[in-house]
Design a protein that fits this description.
Blueprint (H helix, E strand, L loop, with lengths): L4 H5 L9 E4 L5 E8 L6 H12 L7 E10 L3 E10 H7 L1 H5 L6 E4 H9 L4 E8 L2 E8 L2 E8 L4 H17 L8 E5 L6 H8 L3 E4 L15 H76 L5 H10 L6 E8 L4 E7 L2 H13 L6 E5 L3 E2 L5 E9 L1
Parallel strand pairs: 1-5, 6-9, 9-10
Antiparallel strand pairs: 2-4, 3-4, 6-7, 7-8, 11-12, 12-15, 13-15, 14-15
């Protein structure tokens, strides 16, 4: 237990979810009886009643309520209000360090929900240097008072006045549950004598029960939402940065791997250079000897296949030339179509596939015959 909020804030971490509990001296608690309405209209009716009871404008305060009990005709509610300016002063250590609470509630409501969730109860406990008394119904705060002193003589005046105030608000002054904080154990007999009820000692809640009461101002909600979005974007940037760094690392690893692989290939290439040069020289020799030892390059064989490719007697070969690197066939056809037909058959002839043939456009003679030249190069 730390004595100041500044010391508490110093222990908080950015990801902590904060619930801020107010002392009763900072809030105004009011008990209302309202007709039971349509649930959709009920919050608006409560808001109007609270605004009537407050000495401040609606913009200066934040309010919330809890339902104590309800039947078909009547609803009893506990309404709590806090001035935004006072709330900001109390929570200044939190706000200055960027901590926006998820919920702002009342400590008396948390203690009531924890120790007396059903029925009526009277709580007496210290808040800072002061003692407070709170009347609760079904875990909801109905009436609160601060006690200037806990001396027996003072309690004999204060507690009956509290009971009378409760009666005026329609709350029975008989308290089935009287709860004293364990630090007030010396007051037990005094309180029992005044109220004629058994007093039970209760300790500090760790943690206290949650309540639906939330006095978080709208401006704080918006700021919390902005901080949440900013935190989400920060997480996204961190994840993106991590992914980018990971990608750079993988690229670096891949680059190192590629350089090592290139080095290995270069070493293998250097080792195999003599064999490679021998294969290249042998291949060049065989290519040079191919026209002499490969029957597919024999002029007689080539001419035989050329004549096999003639489409008709109207196509005539007039000249044939062959060197080690190419062959050329000059001819004349009765028409350009026959010349093209001949060239096509030459290209498709199985015996001439070792050559790649090309033919330029035939030259048309005065008698409409077509002179052509077909050139072939080894593949």
């Amino acid at each position: 237990m730390l004595p100041t909020l500044d010391e508490v804030v110093s222990l908080l971490k950015a990801e902590d979810d904060v619930v801020f509990s107010l002392p009763v001296m900072a809030v105004l608690a009011q008990r209302f009886r309202l007709p039971t309405l349509d649930p959709a209209e009920f919050p608006e009716m409560v808001r109007i009643q609270i605004e009537k009871a407050l000495p401040f404008s609606p913009e200066e305060v934040t309010t919330d309520f809890e339902l104590i009990e309800q039947n078909e005709t009547e609803s009893v509610i506990s309404a709590i209000a806090v001035r935004n300016e006072q709330l900001a002063e109390i929570a200044a250590p939190l706000l200055e360090r960027g901590f926006i609470p998820r919920q702002v509630t009342v400590y008396a409501a948390q203690r009531a929900t924890t120790h007396a969730p059903e029925g009526r109860a009277l709580l007496i406990y210290p808040e800072g240097e002061m003692f407070v008394s709170a009347v609760t119904e079904n875990g909801k705060v109905s009436l609160t008072r601060t006690l200037d002193s806990v001396e027996p003589e003072h309690l004999k005046m204060e507690l009956p006045q509290l009971a009378l105030s409760a009666e005026l608000q329609g709350i029975s002054a008989s308290f089935p549950n009287v709860l004293l904080d364990e630090t007030c154990y010396e007051l037990r007999e005094t309180v029992q004598g005044i109220l004629d009820s058994h007093a039970e000692l209760v300790g500090v809640e760790t943690p206290p029960a949650s309540t639906t009461l939330n006095l978080l101002p709208e401006s704080w909600r918006q700021r919390r939402s902005r901080l949440a979005r900013r935190g989400e974007w920060r997480k996204r940037f961190i994840r993106a940065g991590g992914a980018y760094i990971g990608l750079l690392f993988l690229c670096l690893v891949y680059l190192i791997y590629v350089r090592l692989e290139i080095g290995r290939v270069n070493r293998l290439s250097t080792r195999d250079n003599p064999q490679t040069e021998f294969v290249r020289a042998t291949e060049a020799t065989w290519k040079a000897l191919a026209p002499a030892i490969d029957s597919r390059y024999y002029p007689v064989e080539i001419l035989l296949h050329l004549f096999e490719s003639l489409p008709s007697p109207d196509v005539r070969i007039t000249a044939y030339n062959q060197s080690a690197r190419q062959i050329s066939v000059d001819g004349e056809a009765n028409s350009a179509a026959l010349a093209y037909q001949f060239a096509d058959k030459v290209k498709k002839n199985p015996g001439l596939q070792v050559f790649q043939f090309d033919m330029v456009a035939p030259r048309i003679l005065p008698n409409d015959h077509a002179q052509f030249r077909l050139e072939g190069k080894p593949r």
